[in-house]
Amino acid sequence: MRWARWSKRGTKGRLLPNPLKRSSGRPNSVRRPAPGRPGKLADQDWADAAAWRAQGLTDTEIGQRLGWLPDTVRAAGGTPHINRVGHAFFKTRMRDEGAIFGGEVSGHYYFHDFYNADSGTLPALLMLEKLSMEGKPLAELLEPLRSKYFISGEINSEVADQQAKMEEIAERYSDAHQYRLDGISVEYDDWHFNVRPSNTEPLLRLCLESLVSHEDMERRRDEVLALIRS
C-alpha cells in the first residue's frame, strides 16, 4: 500500500519547477493549476508545501482508512488511495488515475510530470523549500505527526511458507477489517498493519501503525512479529 489521491480547489502555493520543463508545457514539468481549478497530488506532511495540487498513490504498507497519510490527505481536501508496491504497478496506476504524484515507504517518489518516473531530486527540493518557507527545523515540523502517529517501520522476517503464514494472520485477526491488495492488511479503529511477501527474498515484511501511543505500537508490533516468527 502506498500513496493517495486528492483534489484541492482555490488554495495557494507553489512548487519548484522541474529543470527539464519544456516551453510547450508538456507533461514533464511540475506546474501549478490555474486559480480555482482542481490540482492533483498526494503524500505526507511535507506535501503541505504544495497542498494546492492533489492526486496520487501510496503503497499498501500505509492504512487505507486510518493513519497519518490518509488523515493528511483528507485534511488537504483529498481522497486517499493505496496501491501495490513496485514501480511498474505505480506507473500503470498513475497513468490510469491521472495522478500527478505517488510514493512508497521505501522512499521512491513518482511524478506525473516526470513521465510517472521516480525522482529523489524533486522531493529533496520540496523539503528544502518547505524548510526555507517555514523557518523551522525538520524535527519541529514533524512533531505534530510523531506525537500522534506511532509507526514501526518495515521489519523483515524470514518465513518458509509465506502464504500459509499470511492465512494464519488472517485467521488470528478475523474480527478486523481486512483486504488483500498486497499481502494482507489488517485494520482496527486505532491501529493497523500490513504483512506482505518480498518479491525477491523468502521474507515477510511487517509495517504497523498505532494511533494510541509508542508503547501501544511496540506491544502490537511484538504481538504480530511473534505470530509471524512462530
Shape: globular
Mean of pLDDT: 74
Highest CATH level, the class of the largest domain: Alpha Beta
State the CATH architecture of the largest domain.
Answer: 3-Layer(aba) Sandwich
For the record, give the distance between the C-alpha atoms at the N and C termini, rounded to a whole number: 25 Å
**What assembly state would you assign to the polypeptide chains in this entry?**
single chain
**Tally of contiguous helical segments:** 6
Number of strands: 14
Radius of gyration: 18 Å
- Look at the structure and name the CATH superfamily of the largest domain: Alpha-D-Glucose-1,6-Bisphosphate, subunit A, domain 3
Q: How many structural units, i.e. domains?
A: 2
CATH topology of the largest domain: Alpha-D-Glucose-1,6-Bisphosphate, Chain A, domain 3
Fraction of helical residues: 25-40%
Query: What string gives the helices and strands in order?
Result: EEEHEEHEEEHHEEHEEEEH
Characterize the biggest β-sheet: 6 strands, mixed
Strand content: 15-25%
SS-based structural class?
Answer: alpha+beta
| Unreliable stretches | 1-57, 59-63
Describe it.
By secondary structure, the chain is α+β, with helices and mostly antiparallel strands. It folds into two domains: about 1-145, 3-Layer(aba) Sandwich (Alpha-D-Glucose-1,6-Bisphosphate, Chain A, domain 3), CATH 3.40.120; about 150-230, Alpha-D-phosphohexomutase, C-terminal domain (TATA-Binding Protein, 2-Layer Sandwich). It is built from six helices and 14 strands. The chain has helices spanning about 70-75, 85-95, 120-135, 140-145, 160-170, 215-230, and strands spanning about 1-5, 5, 55-60, 80, 80-85, 100-105, 110, 115-120, 150, 155-160, 175-180, 185, 190-195, 205-210. Strands 1, 3, 5, 6, 7 and 8 form a six-stranded mixed β-sheet that branches. Strands 9, 10, 11, 12, 13 and 14 form a six-stranded antiparallel β-sheet that branches. The radius of gyration is 18 Å and the shape is globular. It starts with a strand and ends with a helix.
